[in-house]
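Cont'd.
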Amino acid sequence: MLKRLIFGRVAGMLLGGFALLAAGAAQAEWPERPITLIVPWGAGGGTDATGRMIGSLLEKELGQPVNVVNRTGGSGVVGHSAIANAKPDGYTLGVITVEVGMMHWAGLTDLDHMSYTPIALYNADPAGLQVRADSPYQSAADVIDAIKANPGKFKGSGTGQGGIWHLALAGMLNDAGIDPAAVPWVPSKGAAPGLQELAAGGVEFVTCSVVEAAALIDAGKVRSLAVMGDARLGAFPDVPTLKESAGLDWKLAAWRGLAGPKGLPEEVTGKLVPAFEKVWNSAEFQKFMEGRGFGLVWKPEAEFATWMSESDAGLGSVMKAVGLAK
Amino acid sequence: MRLNDAIFGIVLLIFAFAVIVYSQSFPATFGQSYGPDLFPVLIASGLAVCGLLLTLKGWAARRKTPWFESGDWAKDWHKLVTFALVPLALIFYILFSEFLGFLPTASLILFVLLRRFSVGPLAALGIACATSLVIHTIFARFLLVPLPWGLLQPIAW
Amino acid sequence: MDVLLTAIGLVFTPYVLLVMLGAALFGLFVGSIPGLTATMATALLIPITFFMDPVPAIAAIVTTVAMAIFAGDIPGCLLRIPGTPASAAYADEAHALTAKGQAERALGTSLVCAVIGGLLGTLVLATTAPLLAEFAIQFSSFEYFWLACLGLSCAVMISTGSVLKGAVSLLIGLFISTIGIDITAGHPRFTFGSVEMMGGISFIPAMIGMFAVSEVLRYVASSRQKPQVPQQSIGNVFRGLGPVLRRYKLNLVRGGAIGTAIGVLPGAGADIAAWVAYAVSKRFSREPEKFGSGHVEGLVDSGSANNAGLSGAWVPALVFGIPGDSITAIVIGVLYMKGMNPGPTVFLNQPELIYAVFVAFFLANLALLPLGFLAIRLARQVLRMPQRILMPIILMFCIVGAFAINNTVFGISIMLVLGLLAYIMEENGFPIAPTILGIVLGTMLEDNFMSSMIKADGDLLGFFSRPIALSLGIVTLSIWFLPPVIRALRKRSQRFSQ
């Protein structure tokens, strides 16, 4: 009696399921059901905040719920793998970040930028060089001279070992002709704990993005000496570029973009890219990004792909130069 | 299921030894004198010491405490199967929820467990389906947890 | 004063009050389900707060979190399954009270202490935030290392039974915390090539496994049906609390102070606050032997501490934009979005908004009293359900909860493995609380030790090189080494006198 009951139930369910599955495959104009947007970093961080904003605006644009899902851990490897390994049907998308071009060099994964279908780059924040407010250094050139004079004396922080802001420091030193090991890196769980160390006097430099240091700069605890980008930032007009401050060409930015797994069909990208462009241009999104001080950049599809491959090559050569690549 | 302390001691010793050996394969770090193997080795050494003490303690008490005491339930076939059913249910969910979908998997697991705990068939069926539906609605609908639809994808609501 | 009145005016509008009520119900619900944390509740609120003014947006978050942290006590007390990590420290104790038929007494105590702790924390936040933040920002990895050591000492104080087995349990927890990519070197440890393992063993599925799954296993293995404990209905959960509170008023204040202090420090939140408060309570109790057997004293301390920790965490978040815990990490994003950029200037530029946040804190904690009361009445019904029906349903909730942490079945695997481990451990007299504490504190201990060693170029004296670190170090070392020394001295003097 019981067995028959279970069997009947399961069989009925399976049959019903398959019938509907077959019916479902025939129709379909993307998107006909909710979309999952994977964020490879934790709730509360910058990537999560932008992801959730994009999710809620994209939801209005596409008329289907967009569920933001955090897949954290492993220096971003876990979440990035989840995006790359999803079915390329347009129902799983993700925010990918600069680490895509780093983790394979570090030997953590085989994934690289070729594992994704680029939708668009929407944000890039250049690294900055931050010191404590009472620090004797007034320019990036002062810092470089001091490090040259005292190799091994100063410490830097701002992210984990081999993370993006570690590269910012190591690359800068490399560019100035100093051994990157001259400033040992004190790993931290992201920019905020690194800045805390800086303010508490535990380290001398933090090379996170200027934006991440904004609150402490306002509070008069921390000064930013240089920004490692092409031009000064709109929100921080007083902070010179590294070129102006120390004559170095080194540039590095953390970036974020929307992407799907490799091989998204054109009917998906054909609808998704214009929808995302509308979102990016919307007053809400612009206001949100400016409010947080996030740098706004727009590079759709092919441009995004070129950006990623350039970023990947650049990061790779620096990581090799400073001994972080495997 | 009670075991003599010495058995735990020996297991801990073996485990600690394995951890220490394996940790030797961790690379030294760029520009740093302390590697990722430091803490695992320290912890494993602590475990090894504790393991040794447990072994000695268990050996000293071997007359009083048997090596293995299974408890009444393990002698009873019925109970043993029920006990195994809990981890099996979790393994079943881990393996098949993605394909079958949350609703069928959860209903099935609940139904089987309820029946095993001797709840009447109709009541079990009702509770299983109702609970699955309620959980699904709360988590997937309101808390946006992406529970898999699996086979029911085409009728997803 | 005008500012305060304006702030009160901002909060006491029908819209804000309605938002707070909705948030309260949401928070109570999320908190009482194991696996759904206050952090997750906050993250879920973000898209909704996009479309709100600053005051209702922040009020919604504050209310949700305060409710969720208390609600975590409910399943912890009734089923020995903590609803949020902040309740893990005293779930055993509260459940022991339930087993004695005093579920209402336990929950009533938790509730009132949560309210008082929350109010104390808010008071500190509202009056001394800038000052406290200046202190908190002095903490570097040296100080955090000592704090983590102090936290680990709690394991010794809270564990019952054999010291050796407690040590094994703690070491197992510490080992579990080393799994995954270590941040010092970026090297994957004990992951055996699995991408999921690289992310490490998440604390929440581990906790669900060790508490809930092992409980289900124990139910199955127990040779007879556990007799349903008739719960003494005291009708009103608040009745009879007066004497309890009077007796333990010192504990209430102490718990609140510990909670606030730990909350203020970035990187340590309500969950660690509850552990520490519980351990301190036991250490200084006149009846430490009663702990673990259903004694309300520990509940008073830790129930007050975790809710106080919530407001404490806002101190560095508001003043320096440095999150005090994972919840305020999200809150900072909301603050920026609403144009209330964190920094000392926010107190000067928009004092009415900041005060409105404080008013919302007070109101949320006060609202906890009636709403928590209703929640307790409702939750009590759970105990009426026969266990053979309850247990499978609990298992299902655990599955979903473990899944929801990272939205992958890997969480369920963690839950299963640690559930079996905890079952075997408890059957053989190994306490599980130290394991959980080890998982919580392990990374904090290792990260800060490594960072400190790099900063000090390997010189161990670096751990005593800064004033706060020096004092913390001395306190820690004396807690570790003084008791045995004193004991030895006493023995000697006894011998002399003989």
